[in-house]
Design a protein that fits this description.
GO terms for molecular function: ornithine decarboxylase inhibitor activity. The chain has 178 residues and is of the alpha+beta class. 21% of the residues lie in helices and 31% in strands.
Length: 178
Amino acid sequence: MIIASPAKKELAIQLQVLQPPAQPVSSTQNTKNASSTFSFAHEYNRQHQDIVTFTKRDKARNNDWVSQVFGSVDVEELMVISTPALASPCQAFISDSTVFLSAPVILQDGCFQSCITHLLELAEEKTGCENLVVVIDRRNLDTEFKNLLRAYMYLGFQMVNPSVYGQEPGFALLGYEL
């Protein structure tokens, strides 16, 4: 991944790998598409829950967001992430210690920074991955794209060169080293 990283002082912080909590919210098993759902209490507000649903990807379906962005990519499992600040759940998948996340739609005005920071913390603490890449569909964002890009870059994201992951031209990738 081509992302410049500033000189950082090394800290030893133990990561928590995403594992089911003692009491999962629900767990369903199908013969074709097994899915499981886990909830995690917010660190600062225990009343709010982050809900992460894992689903086996149906490779016969070629119209999911992974196929639209990357074409034919070998992804076995998809995640749907729902937090209280999101208007709709984000879709994600993990590949080579990188979390790929569809651009979240923020529910409340003025909550962009806190919502993105929370998604970064969730990705870092629960997956153990090294990078987060946000996928932005810029085909429908004429004037808003520059403002959205500026907001992500303010939080430390950087544009990822299209040659790195080979996404379709209508999508922009913004990377963040966790």
